[in-house]
Design brief:
heterodimer; A: 6-stranded mixed sheet; 5-stranded antiparallel sheet; 11 strands; B: 7-stranded mixed sheet
């Protein structure tokens, strides 16, 4: 089955700096890669996603890149703000709407 | 956006009892729902895929007789943790696929924190 590795497990950045989270996956048939933000005790919130036919996608301060050959994808958050502090999960699936395999999560702390 | 309601949000039970968790799609019909489990400070692990009108598909290592899934209607899937033990204490969360978005959108429930004493 699919295996998704995520690094780092924790990330502390100064407000205004950028944060980068990296994930690798093992199933070459995976084609859909969403990123979720989760606050303690809450449901995961989809923040951005990318499909395998696209190399990069941007939405305001958030961007995701995908290297399908190398089987890795990354989340970039620019101009970080304290409200960006949360746990972020990458995930992979064979198609949007299918079951997701999640990475281990990254706890991001943005220091004011 | 679509709403998925999950109840209860928190439950405390004694060891050996059974607990039922409900996942409802409020404004769409979900033929497929997924159940995940999340231990403290860990990732979400898929337990099973619930399909309306048929048996659930369980992931490897998940005991189907312990975690009973019923998806008897297009808007409701239930997860029953039978004979719960302290090691079953976890955050359980469902997600439902909304067919209105070409079957591509998943919406998560609010989760259920289960504590087994």
């Amino acid at each position: 089955g699919e295996n998704v590795e995520q690094h780092p497990s924790t990330l502390s950045v100064q407000e205004g700096d950028s944060a980068v989270i990296k994930c690798t996956y093992s199933d070459s048939a995976s084609n859909y890669f969403p990123w979720y933000k989760q606050e303690l005790g809450k449901r995961p919130q989809l923040i951005i996603d990318i499909r395998s036919n696209v190399g990069e996608k941007k939405d305001q301060r958030i961007a995701v890149t995908l290297n399908k050959t190398a089987k890795h994808f990354s989340l970039h958050i620019t101009e970080t703000q304290p409200e960006d502090s949360a746990v972020y999960f990458c995930a992979a699936s064979r198609a949007a709407g299918n079951k997701l395999t999640f990475g281990g999560g990254t706890r991001v702390l943005v220091k004011p | 956006g679509a709403v998925v309601s999950q109840h209860p949000s928190r439950v405390i039970c004694k060891s050996g009892t059974s607990v039922k968790i409900e996942c409802r799609s409020l404004d769409f019909q979900a033929t497929t729902m997924f159940w995940y489990r999340q231990f403290p400070k860990q990732s979400l692990m898929l337990m099973a895929t619930s399909n309306e009108g048929s048996k659930a598909t369980y992931e490897q290592g998940v005991e189907k007789d312990k975690f009973l899934i019923n998806h008897a209607s297009l808007t409701l899937s239930t997860l029953t943790v039978t004979s719960a033990h302290p090691e079953d204490s976890s955050f359980y969360i469902c997600s439902a696929r909304d067919p209105g978005f070409l079957n591509e959108k998943l919406f998560f429930g609010s989760g259920t924190q289960l504590s087994v004493l």
